Amino acid sequence: FLGCVFGVHLTLLVQLAVGALPMQMCLLRWCCYVLALSGFHAAEFLTTARYKWTDVSYDSWLLNHSAAYGYAAAAAMVEFWLEAYFSPGLKSSKPLLALGLAVVLLGHGARVAAMVTCGEHFAHRIMIAKDPRHRLVTHGIYAHLRHPSYTGWFWWSVGTQVVLANPLCFVAYAAASWRFFADRVPFEEATLRAFYPAEYPAYVRRTRVLIPFLR
């Protein structure tokens, strides 16, 4: 199903790009959003399948992440089409679309890089018991960023609303994503300090979390 959705919208996007269909900014934005959304979930599954195939399940797609996630996606779609119908001029800015796509690609790239760097040690759930095989990952993207998968997801989610030119959901997504990670990051950091009491404090001092107001 996800592949069909991706394929249909990629075909529409190509037709818009080559002029086979008349350029419509609303449709262009929608195609970019659906490709970003379906591409994100496909990458979650494929990366898990590549590096941690023993854990692969339907949950690996993250489509059933939470009820709140589903409601947020539905809200973004409803806002987009209501505004596209009643105020299409709101969706007309090409520079804003370019900015949104850049944020989406950078955010998603950071998340995928984090998953690939961790390899078999990456997990969608916080580990509360230390696996003796695990080591603190401090190379690759982790040499510069702490929690790059969270940073990537934060900016990807906010970027999707810039792509859609959704002012209401932009604010809501930024606030909800920040609140989620403001709770999750300190909990995970406390866990990592307990797992790696000698290494983690030094690692914290030389890296950053690129989510606003989180240190």
TrEMBL record:
Domain of life: Eukaryota
First-tier enzyme category under EC: transferase
One MF annotation (Gene Ontology) recorded for this entry: protein C-terminal S-isoprenylcysteine carboxyl O-methyltransferase activity
Keyword Cell cycle: no
EC number: 2.1.1.100
Membrane topology: Multi-pass membrane protein
Protein name per the record: Protein-S-isoprenylcysteine O-methyltransferase
Organism: Aureococcus anophagefferens (Harmful bloom alga)
Lineage: Eukaryota, Sar, Stramenopiles, Ochrophyta, Pelagophyceae
